[in-house]
Amino acid sequence: MTRRFLATLVVAGLVAASCGSDDDAAPAIDAPADSAAPATDAPSDTAAPETDDVSTDDAEFPVTIEHKFGATTIDAEPERVVSIGYNEHDFLLALGVVPVALRDWYGEQPNSVWPWAQDELGDATPDVLPVTELNFEQIAALQPDLITGVWSGISDSDYELLSAIAPTVAQPDTYEDYGTPWQEQTLILGRATGREAEARAIVDELDAKFAAARDAHPEWIGQTASVAFVTEEGPGAYTSQDTRSRIMQDLGFVIPEINDSGGDGSFYLEMSPEDITPLDVDVLVWVAGAFEAIDGILNQLPTRPALTAVQEGREIFAGIELSGAFSHGSPLSLDYALEALVPEIEAAADGDPSTPVPSAVEVGAVDAPADDAATAAGAAWATVFDSTVAFADKAPHLADAEALEETIEAYAAAGDGFDGISLVPTDVVIDGEAAEVTYDVNFGANPAYTDQIGSIELVDGVWTVSRDEFCSFMASARVGCP
Question: Where in the chain is CATH 3.10.450?
């Protein structure tokens, strides 16, 4: 699996991908591809996690599911499901199925499960499979009765090895790898686990939410949109079959044909930093996430300012959680993504720079309107001093952020003992390129100290907390700066 591939599959700049070449084969094991499952000396200690009390009385087994490698028959309702698709556990959890193992992807989330799916995971602690090569012996030791890999990108040789361990459901042959629509992925997994009716209900409910968004914004129908990224190897845009692009299509947008010109099997179009004209669309969504990716977009694409999309304020910068929700494209994450994305699209699709996109203001891609400067300064202040906010979201608004990363981690840990520490602005007074912030210190939702005073400065168009200001409060929180 190549560095470019993983960095693109994940989210630009959010994970350190494994090294390799385009010719990397599936991991070799001693047994031939047509052998039986690798033997284990004893059953795995991992017990089958409890699933939600979802009725499967109407489920009929055996069921046969066709896919790109043939067809898989599942004889009975599975009890030990191993999920090898990067986003697959989200779908299973939505269906009330807690897998005994799931595939790591990115983000360093607890049990590799993002916030929107934590309630469905509950207290379960599934095994976490590596993001890179599959460990077939590890999977066999789990003694699964079903392996799901609709969004795994597995090869034919991978499938042969996996299907010798347990019935394995792979991606349909009608789509590119990682291109199965979320609706179809939900229904496939519903059939495989005996929860087809529940899957249909989930799809219908979420489809209705997309339809409501389209109905509320008829002007979006037929507008062009691209979902783009920047890695250390350059910019790119996802194809029309990619999960992220499908979400935009579900909202009525059209993905330009050029995005699909990257070659057979590719789920993104590579571009040169000197020519990103394919990104001149009505709505341009940057799957940015990490601070390094935002810096790459703003400072390492010399022709970006010439795009009409930039000049008309049509860019959206998806932060870590929105990028994660957008990229997972699951029933659980899409609820979050829609709530966060729709207001951003409203501001971008109108092509009016006087109604700036909130995320573009936050990252410094555009200036806040004069009457919104206080709001932007207050939002930056709150972001920096909220112990629950990720480092990557704080970094654009904190001077010398990289040198303070360990301090921020320690502050987050300290805040956990108080249900979070936050500095909530109650008043912001702008004075040129500086602002005085009056704020309350909250432990959880409760104010502990009120009417405190701090300052924040406008640096290169971005409201930024100085190192001295930040470290002064850290000292009061008994968290030292280096």
Answer: 372-477
d(CA 41, CA 309): 60
Q: Domain 63-204: give its CATH code.
A: 3.40.50.1980
Model confidence pLDDT, tens digit, residues 244-277: 999 999 999 999 999 999 877 688 999 999 999 9
**How many Cβ atoms from other residues are within 10 Å of residue 1's Cβ?**
18
Instruction: Give the SS3 label for residue 71.
Output: strand
Under CATH, which number does the domain 372-477 receive? 3.10.450
Whole-angstrom Cα distance, residue 318 to residue 287?
5
User: How far is it, in rounded angstroms, from Cα 223 to Cα 206?
Assistant: 22
48 vs 420, higher pLDDT: 420
Token pair of 272 as six digits: 């040169």
- Domain 218-363, what architecture? 3-Layer(aba) Sandwich (3.40)
Listed residue (64, 102, 65) closest to 85, CA to CA: 102
Closest CA to 245 of 264, 269, 217: 269
Cα separation, 230 vs 237, whole angstroms: 9
Look up residue 402 and give its amino acid. E
Phi first, then psi, for residue 27 (nearest 5°) are -55, 135
pLDDT tens digits for range 224-249: 999 999 988 889 999 999 989 999 99
Is residue 199 classed as helix, strand or coil in its secondary structure?
Answer: helix
pLDDT in tens, 213-223: 999 999 999 99
> Residue 286: which residues within 8 A CB-CB, separation 6 or more?
228, 229, 230, 293, 294, 297, 315, 316, 317, 318
Question: 286 has which bridge partners?
Answer: 228, 317
Residue carrying structure tokens 């699964």:
144
The structure tokens 């699951």 sit at: 330
DSSP state of 23: T
The amino acid present at 25, given as its one-letter code, is A
- 3-51: pLDDT as tens digits: 344 444 544 333 333 223 333 332 222 222 232 333 333 333 444 444 4
Over residues 187-209, the mean pLDDT reads: 97
Q: What is the mean pLDDT of residues 57-61?
A: 70
CB 429 within 8 A of CB 436: yes
SS3 call for 463:
strand
- pLDDT band at residue 120 under the 50/70/90 scheme: very high
CA distance 255 to 247: 11
Phi, psi of 282 (to 5 degrees): -75, -35
Q: Is the pLDDT of residue 281 over 50?
A: yes
Helix (H, G, I), strand (E, B) or coil at 309: helix
Contact call for residues 253 and 216 (beta carbons, < 8 A): no
